[in-house]
Amino acid sequence: MKKNLAVPVSLTLAIIITCLCSFFAAPDVKGPGRFPYKQAGLTERQAAAHLINRFTFGAKPGDIDAVVNIGLEKWFEQQLKGGLADDSLQQLLSAYSWLTMSNAEIVNTYPRPGKVVRAAVKEGLISKDSVNKTDKKEYREQLRLMMEQNSQRPQQELFRQLISQKIMRAAVTNNQLHEVLTDFWFNHFNVSITKNDCAAYIPAYERDVIRPNVVGEFRELVLKTAKSPAMLLYLDNFSSAGNNAGINNPGKAMVGKRLLAQRAAQQNDTALAGKFARKLQQAKKAQGLNENYAREVMELHTLGVDGGYTQQDVTQAARVLTGWTIYPSEDYGSVNAIRRMIERIGEDKLARGGFVHEGDFLFAMNRHDNGEKIVLGRKFPEGGGYEEGVQLLQMLADHPSTAKFISRKLAIKFVNDNPPQALVERMAKTFIEKKGKISEVLLTMVASPEFWSKQSLREKTKSPFELAMSSVRSLNASISQPYQLYTWINKMGQKMYYYQAPTGFPDKGQYWINTGALLNRMNFGLALAAQKIQGVKVDLLALNNNHEPESANSALAVYSKMMLPERDLGETIKRLTPLLNDPMLDSKIEQAAEKTAPIKDAAAGTGMSTADQLSQDDAMLVSSKQAGKKGRQQTRYTSDMAATKYPMLGQVVGIIIGSPEFQRR
Amino acid sequence: MTSRRAFLKSGGVALFGIGIGGVPSFMAKAAALNQSVAPYKKKKILVCVFQRGAMDGLMAVTPFTDNYLKAARPTLFMEAGSGKPLTDLDGRFGLHPAMKSFEPFFTDKRLAIVHGIGSPNTTRSHFDAQDYMESGTPFSKGTPSGWLNRAVGLLGHDASPFRAVSLTNSMPRSFYGDHPSVSITNLQDFAIQMRGNPAGANVAAKSFEDLYDKTTTGLLKETGKESFDALRMLQKANLSSYKPALNAVYPVCPLGNALKQIAQLIKMDVGLEVAFAESGGWDTHFNQGREQGVFARNAADLSNSITAFYNDMGPLQEDVTIMSMTEFGRTVRQNGTGGTDHGRASCNFILGNDVNGGLVHGQIQPLATENLEDGRDLAVTTDFRTVFREVACRHLNIQDKGTLFPSYSGAPIGVMRS
Question: pLDDT value at position B39?
Answer without folding.
Answer: 46
